[in-house]
Amino acid sequence: MYSISEKIRISKKALLEKSVFLNNEIIPAATVKFICCDCSHENRVEIIPHQSGFPILQIYNEDKVLPKNELLKHEIVTTTSPGMLHFGELTVNQLPTLYFGTHCKTCYSKYICVFGYGEKQPGMTILQISGIWKYEEIQ
Ligand SMILES: [Zn+2]
């Protein structure tokens, strides 16, 4: 799990076994399984609340990694509604939104995972993954 600082291009979306985790499913971590688009290997990533991931703002701030329109075009995030803007301009399900980079354990293809995490309503904490996409660094 790492942060991404180079400009990237989004490629294929990986198959995810499960994308929404609730309450106890997130304690101590959510185990995410995805199938590599290139070699079909099933990879596992653990998302630990309050520990895993980096703010999505780092990705689109000054178009540093990926511009906002690309994030919206690939449906990685949506535009946040006016009442929820304290979570940032672009979010997953109007939740505080994070991302991380990872790679396939077998063929080393690079992937970006984006998820929202927070208390959706009292007593309901949700971790929602919008997806895991293969990406390439733009030279
Ligand atoms: Zn692979």
UniProtKB/TrEMBL annotation:
Return the protein name.
Uncharacterized protein
Q: Which organism is it from?
A: Chryseobacterium flavum
